Amino acid sequence: MSEKRFRGAADRLRRPERLALLEPARVCAHLLGSLRAPSGAPSVLDIGTGTGVFAEAFAAAGASVTGVDLNPDFLALAAAHVPAATFVRAAGEALPFGAARFDLAFLGHVLHESDAPEAMLAEAARVAREVAVLEWPYRDEAQGPPLAHRLSEAALEAASARAALAVVERLELQHMRLYRLRHAGP
C-alpha cells in the first residue's frame, strides 16, 4: 500500500470547508456538460471514491455512477450517502470492469496517491471513453497533501502519454486543477 494514501478520518472528507475547495457540483456539471456520451444517462466510474463526494454530485447531475476504493469503511459511508450508486472494493490500478464500460472515468484527488499513476491512468483509459483528473496544484500550501506527494503538470502529462492519453483540456478552478484526457492516437 502506498505511503501517500489518505489515512485520515472519514469525516474529514466531507467537512464543509473541504467541499468548498473541491467544488464537486461545478466539476461534475462541467464534465457532464461536455461529455461525448451516447444518449441516456452517462455512466461514470469514480476511481478512489472515498466517502462518495463526487459520486454523489455525479448522481445528482443524472449520471449512473459506480465508485471504487480500497477502504471498506469509506465505501460503506459512500453507499449510505449515494444509495443509487454501486460501490466496489478495488484498486484503481486493477479495475474489475470490461473495456469501454463507462463514458467517463473520474480520478478526484487519487492519482497523486498512487505509486503507479501511469498504471492507474491506463486502467481508467481501458474502462472508459474519457478520463478526467482533479488534482491539487503543484505548490506548497496548507491544504491537501505535502508537495512531495503532489503531481506536477509535467508529471501528469508524461504519465498520461505513457498511458496513451492526451490532455485535451485544463480547467483552473478556484483551488484545484481539472484535466480532461482522451485516448491518444490517429
Automatic annotation (TrEMBL):
GO terms for biological process: methylation. It comes from Truepera radiovictrix (strain DSM 17093 / CIP 108686 / LMG 22925 / RQ-24). This is Methyltransferase type 11. PANTHER family: 2-METHOXY-6-POLYPRENYL-1,4-BENZOQUINOL METHYLASE, MITOCHONDRIAL (PTHR43591:SF24), METHYLTRANSFERASE (PTHR43591). It comes from the Bacteria. Residues 45-129 form the Methyltransferase type domain. Keywords: Methyltransferase, Transferase. It holds the Pfam family Methyltransf_11. One of its GO terms (molecular function) is S-adenosylmethionine-dependent methyltransferase activity.
